[in-house]
Design goal:
Strand order of the largest sheet: 4-3-2-1-5
Order of helices and strands: EEEEEHEHEHEH
Structural class: alpha+beta
Number of strands: 8
Oligomer: single chain
Number of helices: 4
Distance between the termini: 49 Å
Helix content: 25-40%
Strand content: 25-35%
Length: 177
């Protein structure tokens, strides 16, 4: 078992460190082999073992790592569950609860979507139309993927992600004026 401090770069936390207890599974690369991730079950300090969730941590953000004497074993069910999550979301986006993300794309947005493969979330074909695409992914994955589309991608839902885009676009425009 490991105890790690991770630098979180969220705007709300402004690069604060958080302490986690980690039950390692594997170190894996993202699909394009640009970053490595510690894939594991983890829990925040102060939580119980029963609170552990599947997570991944960028190896570049691991500041302080301590190997604990406490041992653990992942059972077959836990291993199966983590393997399914890796297959569906990749090692880069295991943290955060997957949600349905609805995005309206312009013609240029659709062209970008077809050509930008890195970190692209999986589209739910049955729920998508020609202009409105529905995805099953974390808010972080959707933000990281679609933010560079600019005005060619409008987040329709969830509201939390839509508001984050609006706020960040407004900030970016202010900086470049």
């Amino acid at each position: 078992m490991l105890k790690i401090k991770v630098t979180l770069g969220d705007k709300q936390l402004s690069d604060q460190e958080q302490l986690f207890y980690v039950y390692p599974y594997r170190i894996l690369s993202d699909p394009l082999h640009t970053r490595s991730y510690l894939v594991c079950y983890s829990r925040k300090a102060g939580q119980n073992d029963s609170d552990k969730i599947i997570a991944s941590f960028s190896m570049a953000r691991l500041n302080h790592l301590t190997v604990l004497e406490q041992t653990f074993y992942l059972n077959k069910k836990e291993i199966s569950h983590i393997e399914k999550q890796i297959t569906k979301y990749s090692a880069a986006y295991l943290i955060g609860k997957p949600e349905q993300i609805t995005v309206k794309l312009t013609d240029e947005g659709k062209r970008i979507y077809r050509s930008k493969l890195s970190s692209r979330p999986e589209k739910i074909e049955a729920l998508s139309t020609d202009d409105v695409y529905v995805f099953d992914c974390s808010l972080r994955q959707a933000f990281n993927y679609f933010f560079s589309f600019g005005a060619d991608a409008e987040i329709l839902s969830p509201d939390e992600l839509r508001n984050e885009f609006i706020e960040n676009y407004s900030s970016a425009l202010t900086i470049y004026r």
